[in-house]
Design a protein that fits this description.
Elements lengths: L3 E6 L7 H14 L4 E5 L5 H5 L11 H4 L10 E2 L5 E4 L5 H8 L8 H12 L4 E5 L6 H9 L2 E7 L3 H18 L7 E8 L6 H13 L13 H5 L7 H4 L4 H16 L7
Parallel strand pairs: 1-5, 1-6, 2-4, 2-5, 6-7
Antiparallel strand pairs: 3-4
Length: 262
């Protein structure tokens, strides 16, 4: 079974990036697809959203420094078929330390390669910090596909251009020539406003084949779930947010043929 690595990135915070990483991973796992979520954000929001407390020594910080392996950091979650590599505050130091090492952009890819080679996880989803720093650039270098979480606001279009320029840099530098835009997930959609619909239409105009049909609504339940250490499916399985992420997972499974080799 071949592992596919998906990086969910956006240099802007508060766009539903971590919410998408956690709930997409959980939705894929619910479809019996072995999934690994990697929390690469030192704030560790994806870690706490799955009900784990922040602890020292649990993240990829050590393996990125050549101490131990990524496989040793994988833990089981409360959800069948879903594993996690947690984050911790020490990971913030990697932003500085990685820049001082040789091949600094490919450290994460090298660290994850043995884990990929096992084929144990069909989908590996990386949740990045809300910036285009060293950790996020490493995640782009390690990924097969970039998934962009984009909120339904006009300023989001500007951010989309910045992310794509970083993708071009990674490709042009020969760090990850095969990196592809896997898709754009429109988040925080407000059905009551024309603005949300206009932004979705605009993004679809620019990326007609890449924008997912499933649109994630702006709902209180999606915002509340992480504070209880739960995915939206455990917190409110009948909510519009849960339905939206289930539909997104179906699209992701079909687009990347995740069940072909599962």
């Amino acid at each position: 079974m071949r592992s596919l690595v998906f990086t969910i990135a956006n240099q802007k915070g508060g766009v539903g990036k971590t919410t998408t990483a956690v709930n997409l991973a959980a939705a894929l796992a619910d479809k019996k697809i072995p999934t690994l979520l990697i929390d690469l954000d030192p704030q560790a929001n994806a870690t706490s959203a799955l009900g784990f407390e922040k602890k020292e020594g649990v993240s990829l910080y050590g393996p990125l420094q050549g101490e131990g392996t990524a496989a040793e950091k994988v833990i089981a979650t409360a959800y069948e078929h879903l594993s996690l590599i947690p984050s911790e505050e020490d990971l913030a130091a990697a932003e500085i330390e990685l820049a001082q090492t040789e091949n600094y952009l490919s450290k994460l890819r090298t660290t994850l390669q043995p884990l990929k080679d096992t084929g144990k996880h069909r989908a590996i989803i990386i949740d990045c910090p809300p910036s285009m720093g060293m950790l996020s650039m490493n995640s782009l270098a390690a990924a097969d596909y970039l998934l962009i979480a984009l909120q339904c606001e006009y300023l989001a279009l500007e951010g989309l251009g910045q992310i794509m320029r970083n993708v071009d840099r990674i490709r042009d530098a020969g760090v990850n020539a095969n990196l592809e835009l896997g898709g754009v997930v429109m988040t925080m959609f407000d059905i009551r406003t024309n603005l949300s619909r206009q932004v979705v239409d605009e993004v679809k105009k620019h990326f007609p084949d890449k924008t997912f049909d499933s649109v994630i609504p702006r709902t209180v339940r999606l915002s509340e779930a992480p504070s209880f250490g739960k995915t939206i499916f455990a917190y409110d399985p009948l909510s519009p947010g849960a339905t939206a992420y289930k539909n997104l997972a179906k699209e992701v499974i079909a687009r990347f043929r995740l069940k072909d080799e599962a």
